[in-house]
Design brief:
The structure holds 2 protein chains of 2 kinds. Chain A has one domain: Ubiquitin-like (UB roll) (Roll). Chain A contains 3 helices and 5 strands, in the order βαβααβββ. Chain A has a 5-stranded mixed beta sheet with strand order 2-1-5-3-4. The radius of gyration of chain A is 12 Å and the shape is globular. In chain A, about 50% of the residues are buried. Chain B has an 8-stranded mixed beta sheet, with helices on both faces. In chain B, strand 2, helix 5 and strand 3 form a beta-alpha-beta unit. Chain B is globular. Classes of the chains: A alpha+beta, B alpha/beta. Chains A and B meet through strand 4 of A and strand 5, strand 6 and strand 8 of B.
Chain lengths: ~80, ~270
Amino acid sequence: MATIRWFGAAAEAAGCDIEPTAAATLGEALAAARATRPALVAVLVRCSVLLDGVRAADPATAVGPGATIDVLPPFAGG
Amino acid sequence: MPKPFTPPLVESGPALTADQRQRYARHLLTPAVGEDGQRRLLGARIAVLGTGGLGSPVLTYLAAAGVGHLTLIDDDVIELSNLNRQVLHDTASLGMSKVDSAARRLSALNPDVDLTVHRERLTDDNADNLLAGHHLVVDCADNFPTRYVIADACERLGVPHVWAALLHTQGQLSVFTRRRPTADDPDTGVGLRDVFPMPPGPDDLPAGPVGIFGPLCGQVGSMAATEAIKMITGIGRPLIGRVAFVDVLTPSVREVVVRPGPPTTPGPTSA
């Protein structure tokens, strides 16, 4: 089992800060989240996704047991 | 004293004067800073981009701490809508250049600090020239293009930068050290583009100004000033390779580990 951690607008759209996932790939993990929470569709487009700390954009990226997927929206305000 | 997590960016400077011993007495009594740290701060040169919501607490604490030289860069003038959070400025200064208003307040706060002000916008064309010669840069900008100009310039110049960014009641903060690899130093560090490879496109941004909760500027700005002081003096464990995600409503600080990502090709980022 891996873990998805949502931040900012992604957490708001997901309805939680953290959740488990049994997906085998990054694409499957995010698709499953989008399917149950449609508000994530628009938010995920602008978020950065880090898999165990490394930016990951390829949906085919394997998600191993114990992995952490962090989903961060960009901020620019100062 | 524990071994520094990262070496201090600045060498220890001359002995303190009697006045300086009084002014910085509470830092001298703080074991993490002490006389050695204070002498490093007095020799430091830091550039701060943006003198608004984040820049106000960052500059105030860095000036009060006795950072020897502060360079202020901002092309904005003070508007009434700034004053819920930009606490360096006041109602009497409406319409005034922010860097001039900030410099006036900071000079009054601590005459030990040399100030350089640039009333201009940072661009790909002037960034290297304006940022070179500093030990550290603090990104307190209010827009994506300028943040990528800063990140790319710091990478080219090999200057670490403290990055802080806000939205509504949340903030993000990190210390980026990404630089171009050399034969002697193949470690490229982690930079803004390892977290967010490109600025969002115009269609992905909200139209018009975004809300920012005033005290959030103070909280995240104070954390940014702390990271700057840690980097200058070599104390503590700076937020290198980590993004702190701050939510003032919870309140909570969650940490995201960041490692070097796939290569990115910086393009022109100026507004």
